[in-house]
Design goal:
Blueprint (H helix, E strand, L loop, with lengths): L1 E7 L5 H12 L7 E5 L3 H11 L3 E4 L1 H6 L7 H7 L4 H10 L4 E8 L5 E7 L8
Parallel strand pairs: 1-2, 2-3
Antiparallel strand pairs: 1-5, 4-5
C-alpha cells in the first residue's frame, strides 16, 4: 500500500492539491490511497474522486503519534505534528510504514503531499 498524505490550507484549490500530489509522485510508485486528517477529509474528497483513489481519514491522535522528517512550526501549533502530509501518510500506511517522499509543497504553497509505503490491512481511524 502506498499512501499519499496531504496537508493543505483552508480554501486550497483543487489545482494546488493536484500539484502537490503530482510533485510527490515523480519517479516513485503510484499511490494506492490518499489520506489526511479526518476533519480535512471532506475537502480532499474531490481530488480522491478525480484520481479514483480511496480516501483514508486519519484521527487527530494518530496524526500526533507519528514522527515526521519535516518540522513546520505552523503544523506543530495547529496539528501537533511537524507535517500533516507526512504524518497522515505514515499513519494510514500502518505500523512500520516508511516515507518514500518527504512533503512536497505546491507552487502556491497552499498544499503539501508526502508518500509512505506500508502494509496496513486495517486502517486506524
Amino acid at each position: 500500500m502506498i499512501v499519499a498524505g496531504l496537508g493543505f490550507r483552508a480554501g486550497a484549490p483543487l489545482a494546488a492539491l493536484h500539484a502537490a500530489f503530482a510533485m510527490a509522485q515523480q519517479g516513485l510508485p503510484a499511490a494506492t490511497h490518499l489520506a489526511t486528517a479526518a476533519d480535512k477529509a471532506p475537502a480532499l474528497a474531490p481530488l480522491a474522486r478525480a484520481l479514483g483513489l480511496p480516501l483514508i481519514p486519519v484521527a487527530a491522535d494518530a496524526v500526533q503519534r507519528c514522527g515526521t522528517a519535516t518540522q513546520s512550526a505552523a503544523s506543530l501549533r495547529t496539528r501537533g505534528t511537524g507535517s500533516l502530509a507526512e504524518a497522515a501518510a505514515l499513519a494510514a500506511a500502518g505500523p512500520g510504514a516508511q516515507l518514500l517522499c518527504h512533503r512536497q509543497i505546491s507552487p502556491d504553497r497552499m498544499a503539501t503531499c508526502a508518500l509512505a509505503q506500508g502494509h496496513a490491512q486495517e486502517i486506524e481511524q
